[in-house]
Design brief:
By secondary structure, the protein is an alpha+beta fold. 53% of the residues lie in helices and 20% in strands. It contains one helix and two strands, in the order ββα. Strands 1-2 form a two-stranded antiparallel sheet. The model has no long low-confidence stretch (mean pLDDT 89).
């Protein structure tokens, strides 16, 4: 597995093929990050924090 940080880009890569279980795990992680992001923005809006 490899993670590359290039200025404002973050890239993730694997050498081996992904099976269905791994794809589901990755999608679940993405969904969790989306939920956290929505919660953060809701908090910012609730507290009237200027961004």
């Amino acid at each position: 597995m490899r993670i590359v940080d290039m200025d404002d880009n973050l890239k993730y890569g694997k050498v081996e093929a992904l099976d269905d279980a791994e794809m589901k795990r990755i999608q679940a992680t993405i969904d969790t990050v989306i939920d956290v992001n929505k919660s953060i923005w809701a908090f910012i809006k609730l507290k009237n924090i200027q961004v």
